[in-house]
Amino acid sequence: MLEARGAVRSLKEYHPPLGGRVGLRLDFNENTVGCSPRVLERLRQLQFDQLARYPERESVEHQVAAHLGADPAGVLLTNGVDEAIHLICETYLEHGDEVLIVVPAFSMYEIYAAATGANVITIPAGPAFRYPTDGVLARISSRTRLIAIANPNNPTGTVVAKGDLLRILRAAPDAAVLVDEAYFDFYGETLLAEVARCPNLFVARTFSKAYGLAGLRIGVLVGNAGQMAMVRRVSSPYNVNAVALACLPDALAEQEYVRQYVAEVRQGREELQHELRLLKLHFWPSQANFVLAKIGERHDAFVRTMRERGILVRDRSRDPGCDGCVRISVGANAQTERLIVALREVVRAMAPTGVPA
Ligand SMILES: Cc1ncc(COP(=O)(O)O)c(C=O)c1O
Which atom of ligand 1 is nearest to the CA of 153? Predict the structure, then answer.
């Protein structure tokens, strides 16, 4: 009988709850108002010829490199950051290699790494989900081949200081260090400039969040040109579809649209955190477009009641160290107002039977 590889058979199944997402989508950290009208206009103007041909990545890759101020030889467009993670794992990991991941973390690091047969070592985050830099340094061995770090992290919204990232990069010269900057736009700090100095550094960015293009599936991986030549070997030349490639230059040209949305999210994040404080709910100060809050034992009832009010939020209580936690994405101003009204009412209604008052 045909059997999948052992590493695949023992993978955890990952089923993000994508079904029936009707309402205000504050559950997947997506953009809640959509991409710029200029991108939609480009979509409407697409001609059959652009779909009939295989997609050409290179010219758009050069535009993205110019936007990032990066060497085009070190820039690869990918089918979302998900594919960037997959490609890094395929390029560098062999059976028995070690991968270090501080948890809670974005699920795909563990899935793609474990699928190669590598040994995934999870290290719990410190108090308040602080990145345990010394703990990570202590686990680096001659077998360590990948250290994956989301900065800001999902689902916590916490960040790792640049100095700590540089310590890790220096301590593990034989490992790929992936700094996943999917939420960069909401944070503003980046390690991109270090790529020129650190040949083991890879920085990933996505257009799924601030740019509102999650459905198009487009991200970018930046690294040392020599290393990226290796990563390109395992990538399909057609990994990014023609529609995404046609739209990306327009999305990049609309920086003011992105800036305005990001400003609203950052303001909304402050308002949400303020409200959580008033409601005496514990939360972790976030640098991303979401906030992780501790709802307590009735986290599932909270998620259900919010859904009944037309607001989708994500139960993260099964993530390591996240008992009773729910992640709430932040959108535009009017949506934040609506969220806060619902939050106040739902929490107050639940208070007598479980949610801390
Ligand atoms: C930290 C992190 N990295 C990567 C991704 C996936 O990004 P993309 O849509 O570009 O595949 C997500 C999505 O939630 C994320 O939270």
Answer: 1
- The residue ranges of the chain whose pLDDT is under 50 are 354, 357
106 in contact with ligand 1, CB cutoff 6 A: yes
Nearest in space to 221 (alpha carbons), one of 252, 187, 255, 182 = 182
DSSP3 helix / strand / coil % (the chain, rounded to 5): 45, 15, 40
Q: What is the pLDDT of residue 352?
A: 58
Q: Determine the pLDDT at residue 12.
A: 86
Which atom, in ligand 1's list, is nearest to the CA of 78? 10
pLDDT for 350? 87
81 Cα: distance to centroid of ligand 1 (angstroms): 6
Q: Cα–Cα distances in Å, from 91 out to 98, 137, 146?
A: 14, 23, 11
CA 54 from chain center: how many Å?
A: 28
CA separation, residue 88 to residues 27, 95, 249 (Å) = 27, 14, 25
pLDDT in the model for residue 357: 44
The DSSP letter of residue 55 is P
Q: Residue 267, Cβ neighbours under 10 Å: how many?
A: 14
Range 146-178 burial, b when 16+ CB lie within 10 A, else e = bbbbbbbbbbbbbbbeeebbbebbebbeebbbb
Distance 152 CA to ligand 1 centre (A): 11
Q: Evaluate the omega torsion of the peptide bond into residue 356 and state whether it is cis, within 30 degrees of 0.
A: no
Q: Phi and psi for 147 in degrees, rounded to 5? A: -125, 120
Sign of CA dihedral 173, 174, 180, 185: positive
Distance in angstroms (rounded) separating the CA atoms of residues 71 and 151: 22
Helices (H), the chain: 6-9, 37-45, 48-52, 58-68, 80-92, 107-115, 133-139, 162-171, 225-234, 242-253, 255-278, 299-308, 333-350
The answer to whether the CB of 208 falls within 8 A of the CB of 79 is no
Q: What distance in angstroms lies between residue 201's CA and the mean position of ligand 1's atoms?
A: 18
User: Angle 299-308/333-350 helices, nearest 10 degrees?
Assistant: 130
